[in-house]
Amino acid sequence: MARPRKIVSLQTGNLTRATKDRRAYEEGLAASEKAGIKKVPKALLVDDIAVAEYKRVLKELLRIDIIGDLDRSNLIVYCNAFSGYVRACEEMQRPTFDPIVANRPSPWYSIRDQERKAMEAAGKALGMSVSARLSVVAKKADQQEEALKQAFGDI
Question: Which of 26, 79, 108, 141 could form a disulfide with 50 if both were Cys (CB 3.0 to 4.6 A apart)?
Answer without folding.
Answer: 79
